[in-house]
Amino acid sequence: MHSDRNPQAEQMGDASMVRNLGFQATAIWPQEQPLFARYHLAGAIRIVDVGCGTGEISRRLAALYPEAQVIGLDILESNLTIARRDSAALAARIDYRLGDAFALALADNSVDLLVCRHVSQAVPDFALVLAEFTRVLRPGGWLHLLSEDYGMIHLPADRFDPDRFWNQHAVAYLASIGCDGRIGRHSPALLANAGYQHIAADYLVIDTLRVARPTLAGVFRAWRDGYAGVLAEASGRSARAVIADMDSMIAAIETPPNYALWQVPVISGQKPGA
């Protein structure tokens, strides 16, 4: 992928992101897994996991579809090295490849299920990526898209306003590099414009009642460690001030009975023509 299409390469390659992939999978997958039943897929299907990272979800997909062949694509060889190591027992069914979401090295109409998680907010011109997804999906194939939205993070507010923080820092930073920090709410329209049918939007409730506090805090701590510098630059504040704000959010998550919520949009649709 060209560097201008991967403006978060440094952050994505940071050790904090490897930790975050594990925390996110632990937090999200229990609520996400039941959504796959709606696709009514079984047997020797072909699944592609775009932006597979360290293979956390590729392995779960292989377990969910025991006869499927899974291709895990990522732009970072360092992630794929970890994925191959941790997926050794599934090597016959998971093929990890270096890949560019803007130019998938896959044939037209060749994929039954395309899964893309935590990627849409990280790339500019996501409509171009979506066109590639549509090209490789077979008629009747399904797209499963987890699109983050940084206006859907809610924490206790008093003198510190976390809603303002995410809008003035994360959304502003992503806009500065050509990405959409609210793409979760924009994704259903993107799928509709691309011609998908049976579009659904589900909001996973990743909160301190359903997810262990250390797990949810681990997500925020990884965000802090990987992104504090660029969030400070985008907002015109010092990194120290940004870290202090993020530390206050982490402390709120870790301290009962405080309530914290991260709503995670999952958008799905079927390519017409089955």
Please outline the helices and strands:
Blueprint: H1 9-12, H2 15-32, E1 46-50, H3 56-64, E2 69-74, H4 77-86, E3 94-98, E4 111-117, H5 126-136, E5 137-146, E6 153-154, H6 162-176, H7 183-193, E7 197-207, H8 213-235, H9 239-254, E8 261-270
Parallel strand pairs: 1-2, 1-4, 2-3, 4-5
Antiparallel strand pairs: 5-8, 6-8, 7-8
Report on the structure:
The chain is of the alpha/beta class and 274 residues long. Helices cover 43% and strands 20% of the residues. The protein is built from 9 helices and 8 strands. It has helices spanning 9-12, 15-32, 56-64, 77-86, 126-136, 162-176, 183-193, 213-235, 239-254, and strands at 46-50, 69-74, 94-98, 111-117, 137-146, 153-154, 197-207, 261-270. Strands 1, 2, 3, 4, 5, 6, 7 and 8 form an 8-stranded mixed β-sheet that branches. Strand 2 (69-74), helix 4 (77-86) and strand 3 (94-98) form a beta-alpha-beta unit. Helix 6 crosses helix 8 (213-235). The longest helix is centred in the C-terminal third of the chain and has 23 residues, at 213-235. The model has no long low-confidence stretch (mean pLDDT 95).
- Tell me the Rg in angstroms: 18 Å
Q: Can you tell me the overall shape?
A: globular
What is the mean pLDDT?
95
Oligomer: single chain
- Major β-sheet, in short? 8 strands, mixed
**Based on helices, strands and strand pairing, what is the structural class?**
alpha/beta
DSSP, total strands: 8
Task: Measure the end-to-end span.
Answer: 31 Å
Percentage of residues in DSSP E strands: 15-25%
What order do the SSEs take from the amino end to the carboxyl end, as H and E? HHEHEHEEHEEHHEHHE
Summarize the amount of helix as a percent range. 40-55%
Number of helices: 9
- Uncertain runs: none
